Prior knowledge:
By secondary structure, the protein is of the alpha/beta class. The chain has helices spanning about 30-40, 60-80, 110-125, 135-145, 170-175, 180-190, 210-215, 265-270; strands at about 15, 20, 50-55, 90, 95, 105-110, 130-135, 150-155, 195-205, 220-230, 240-245, 250-255, 260, 265. Strand 6 (about 105-110), helix 3 and strand 7 form a beta-alpha-beta unit.
Amino acid sequence: MGRKAETKHVPGEFRFKRFSVRNERSAMKVNTDGVILGAAMTVTGKERHILDIGTGTGTIALMTAQRLSEILEKKDCGQRTGQGGVNVAYNQNAGTADSAGFRITGIDIDKDSAEEAAENFIRSEWGGHLEAVHLSLEEYASTLPQGTAFSLICSNPPYYTGDLKAPDARRCNARHSDSMSWQDITDFAEKFLSEDGRLALILPSDQEKDLIRHAAMKGLHVSRLLRIRTVPGKAPRRTVAEFLRRRTADITEDMLTIQEGGIYTPEYKSLLFDFLLCIK
């Protein structure tokens, strides 16, 4: 099922099961929050136009491409064996479904991050479906033609709101909400999310209520909350929040515990099994 990332170790590279990312130039390195969002957010296989805001190394975009391709490969296999499924072309050379033309764009305000993401995209098996753009969210919005609509908008946005900032200017922009906030992202989604599209964010749990309130004012209604805690008994530290344009009667709420008794929980290992080479 598709070619795997090379097994040879390269300094400055983070290897996943089906791809690897250079992790040297980006202002924001591969991190747990981004990997959890990439694995946990809802991906149905119907997404065709996807935007990853603040892409960094491009990890979330690559995880999304892997998940989409795997869903579509299964459907395509079913179609070719007479089991039904969506009508997608099969690229025998690449060994993956052509995915009916899904496109994932990763944008980043940091030039080195965008360039490193572009390199990571090209080196992956989904390079033809991925692009990296060096623009701020505001600048990118100004380039979009009228009628542009994304079926999935996702982001691991900067979330620090206090005065204490990282001393490195590039890292500061990547981590601090002065450069881009979840308010900016929900404002963008209000304009550019498709009618049946989904917005997915990961953020500190203490900002969850404010996010839900602000999104509702923009016509975006919470549909799923996955709260993440490090160990049992601790308050959640992060929340994956998903929003739709339509109201849903039943909001899905779950808790993910990362470790118990000094080892990763079965739920956490299951979530990341398809991506991480070694998780114990």
